[in-house]
Fold:
Amino acid sequence: LPPREHALELPCLASLVFGMRTVTISEADAEAFARSGLAHLFAPSGTQVTLLMGLVWLAHRYLHLPPLPLLLSLLAFYLPLTQGEPSIYRAVLMGFYAFAGWVWFREVDWHTALWLSSALLVLVKPDMLHDAGFQLSYAATFGLVYASPLLSRWLSWLPEWLRFPMAATLSAQLFLTPILMHYFGRVSLVGPIANLFAVLPASFALTLGFVSALLSLPMPSAAMPMSLMASKLASCVVGIAHTFAAPRWACLLVAPPSAVETLMMLAVLTASVAWLKGNQTGGQEKVAMPLTNP
Structure:
């Protein structure tokens, strides 16, 4: 990036692509993202893994390259840059599960992928169970997989292009809220609406930033315009965060619940969704969801 964009916009763009642990953003920006309910955008997760899988699919289809070695090579490039974010490991394991389904033409059951990936991570590194990033990543993904079909039916009056993003955002926020209350003692009242405005530019910024990072060494001249566009979109996301965080009522301060109380709230949410789904469908439904989470 040119010097001005490098100084002003690179921190936010790098945080979107590689996670907040990779680069530090300003305290004002971090507070704005927390108050507006957009802090989850800085957790690298399934979006990046989905992009990698998409690149592998294109290379396999049009260049006839072997998919598995190529995917492993791209992950070897990307994973060290995320500095061990639990959410990216969750997405990688779920991605391999989906990748195996793609190779062997099997339907992917995201419930199985979610529980299997969490069990493997805890088995390999038990202390990850107490990591806030691990808990937030799985809570958001569980909400997306488990509750979004129900919310999507409730929002059937919306146009299709808006219904799924709204259902995905609300379902993830629903299961994130108890954990955010436990760790930070606050609830963003503007989060669902702020996400609707921010998800699209953030997704484009992430995609362009990710591809430009891959091209920066072999084709720097092609990477530069992509980086410029991505940085402008990242700046737009920062502006959205500050706009929604500005009102005093944007964020509600609460007494942080204990760990037991947090688990009880999540259990009640899960049971409530199960009861509502059972009443509407007469049984458990099987859904196939994308790798991404809000």
